[in-house]
Amino acid sequence: MSNLNKLLALVLALILACALTIGGVAEEAAEERAEGTMVYATATFGQKFSPFFATTAYDMEVVDLTQALLLQADRGGAIINNGIDGETVDYNGNGYEYKGMGNVEVVQNDDGSVDYNLTMRDDIKFSDGEPATIDDVIFGIYVLSDPTYDGSSTIYALPIEGMEAYRSGMDSRGNKIFADGEGEGYVENNLYTEEQYNEFWKFYNEEAGAAFAQEICDYCISNGYNAPEDSVAACAANWGFELAEDATAYDFWDAIVAAYDTVEEAEATESAGSNRLQLTIAALGADYETGVDTGDSAANIAGIVRTGDYSMTVHMTEYDATAIYNMAFTVVPLHYYGDPAMYDYDNNQFGFTKGDLSGVKAKNSEPLGCGPYVFDGYANGVVTLKANPYYYKGEPKVATLLMQESVDSDYVPGIITGSFDIAAPSINEDTVKAIQDANANGELAGETIHTVLVDYRGYGYLGINADLVNVGGEPASDASKALRKGFMTLFSVYRDTVINSYYGDRAAVIQYPISNTSWAAPKPADEGYRNAYSVDVDGNDIYDASMSEEQRYEAAKQAAIGYFKAAGFNFDEETGKFTDVTDTYEVMIPGAGQQDHPAYGVAVAASNVLGELGITLQVNDVGTSVWNNALESNTAMMWAAAWQSTVDPDMTQVYSSENAHGNGTNSNHYSLDDADLDALIKAGRSSADTEERKSIYKDAMEIIMDWGCELPLYQRKECTTYSTERVDIDTIPQDMTPYWNWYAEIETQAVK
Q1: 3-state DSSP assignment of residue 33
Q2: What is the CA radius of gyration of the chain?
Q3: Which residue has the higher pLDDT, 219 or 649?
Q4: Of these four, 168, 218, 661, 720, which has the most CB atoms within 10 Å of its CB?
């Protein structure tokens, strides 16, 4: 899928569309701007502005601006341990001081357990003036840990003492009905009535599929994939399905099911976020979300310990390197989202009835917190935020912040025409040209638009499934590794030319399978740093600095020949071809048949050279549905993809053998199965020493590269654009990163 940005050809029409779309809101913004109003362009809201249940990135922006975290993070995403007094951390040669609402002390005990001792400031107030205490934090933790919680937080998966015991013995009524027979007939019980049972299965069997398809359509529309055409057929086309122009969501669901062997496979592969069970429960309401007792459970979470009005301890049974990021709890107001009369810590009451989050969900559309802004309302596609006079970092200088729904292709024209002050458009050729044309200096930063580029916290790569590309059915053998490294050596040499042609200076080639935004990413100055697949089968450097581009291509070809020989292929020196390669290899590129993908040129260039050597590599440019199905079913030999990295560089999900060969989460699509790699992954997750972890992950990445299963391709840029005419550029955050974005210092930003 790709955004349909046709900015250059339609610039006049887009400017007109902007004016029509924004209408009176833009005029109002222009009138109020002199009084301190800023307008931010964003996409369609899901209107779940809850710190517990927000799911879309756009709703989360509203959450971030109205809420605040107990612990602060720096520009690299690392948690600040002493936020109350503040810490200074260097980034890009500059020292920045970070202050937050709390401190954390991590204590590793002799028995292997860990205590996270949390302390919060005693002068924090919510935006309604009510004081905040540690009880607000504890209330929030119990919401996220409730057996019926169905939001995106996974704190319940951490090894917190007593968590499993607290969550056991209860499930939502909807889940229970689903587990009790798949609509085969009601059996009398005391957990749900026959009427509830029949209502559930009627919706699940007759409506949930269409709701599933409609969620995909809503996703496409909210992300601007098919604007201005928002029909089901247009959405389906962007999802890889061809339907009639008058198709309905029911037709879309039928097409999805028909593309797979089972309904379950279709649902698991094509979901835009929810499954039919979740959609059914959500549609039928609170009665089906409410928890019902199915057995015994603990009255509290033993590892959540209140130690004072402004302090608590989270006790975990073992160390988990990712846990520290989960300690940055949102400080949510118990008096607003819960019921203070139902909070009594000593008597195991935590602000709501266990198993009933209906009161919390009732506030989904109207958030309240202790963040920089106060939610003032949502109407006509605009979220209105007002400066919070009680914000602990000081009342924001911008009195009113309007978050205006729009589409990506209108962001830059909107800044040019004065409708928007800030936007984060997709950084493509059309966007770059429009910005450069708007600035008299022809640059991305000028007198009309100021652009800030930062590395996206993920990266693009080419992958190979070791179970499908090997010698003699032995994926871990030296011969199999040599075979895959032969392919990777050829792919690798074409990266610079192709990526630069596709992205220009908006992306950079990377050498290790990790985002450059991670603190664990190897740097060129590090000992042992080398470019990906830049040595031959004997470990000698393939290239030297004096080589021309053509000489590098030839050197890579010769090195690849060496690897293929090591794989056992017979090479005829006279013809320059391998004579016994009968297998046909395939690399799958999700370019939707348009060749519009940064990996396409890399694959084609390598395929041409391989053809000269007598090896067939088919480059198949397919839709995302076909590509995703092959990846999830582990039938893709080679493929191109990109992913977003987490703050912590833990490698368990992507590279652990527990998740390979269709096991576990089936997220190790490389089929990497290496005991040494598993041991390093476990060691990295178990260490609290950052430098030690960095060394461990460097060793782990060397093993991944030695298997020849992944070639890092590029790290692209994201951009934020400002109206230079209306925003005081001197007040925007310096050294922005994926973890320190445009509103990280919103309280100090100012309009002209």
Answers
A1: helix
A2: 27
A3: 649
A4: 720
- What pLDDT does residue 322 have? 84
Which of 150-154, 172-176, 554-558 holds the top average pLDDT?
A: 554-558
Please say if the pLDDT value at position 572 is more than 50.
Answer: yes
| DSSP structure string for 489-546 | HHHHHTHHHHHHHHHGGGEEE-SSSS-TTSTTS--TTSTT---TT-B-TTS-BS--TT
- Over residues 385-404, the mean pLDDT reads 97
Pairing relation of β-strands 422-423 and 37-42? Answer: parallel
Whose structure tokens read 């809420």? 67
Question: Three-state SS for 266?
Answer: helix
CA–CA distance, 723 with 458 (Å, rounded to integer):
27
Longest dimension (CA), the chain: 88
Residues for the chain: how many in total? 752
The CA distance from 171 to 178, in Å, is: 11
Classify burial at 73, counting beta carbons within 10 Å of its beta carbon; exposed 0-12, middle 13-18, buried 19 or more.
Answer: buried
- DSSP code string of 635-655: --SEEEEEEEPPSS---HHHH
Q: What is the mean pLDDT of residues 530-554?
A: 97
DSSP 114: E
Residue 349 near residue 363 (C-beta atoms within 8 A): no
- Other Cβ atoms within 10 Å of 239 Cβ, number: 25
CA dist., res. 248 & res. 627, Å (int):
25
Cα separation, 644 vs 514, whole angstroms: 10
Query: 725: burial class by Cβ within 10 Å (0-12, 13-18, 19+)?
Result: middle
Q: How far apart are CA 551 and CA 297, in angstroms?
A: 69
CA distance to 55, 126, 162, 344, 369, per residue, from 132 (Å): 25, 7, 26, 16, 10
End-to-end CA distance of the chain: 39
Judged by DSSP in three states, 688 sits in coil
Enumerate the H helices of 114-187 as residue ranges. Answer: 134-145, 163-167, 173-179
Amino acid at 78: A
Residue 614 Rama label (left phi>0; alpha psi -120 to 50; beta): left
Q: Determine the Cα–Cα distance for residues 450 and 706; give it in Å rounded to an integer.
A: 43
- Sorted by sequence, the CB contacts under 8 Å of residue 229 that are 6+ apart come out as none
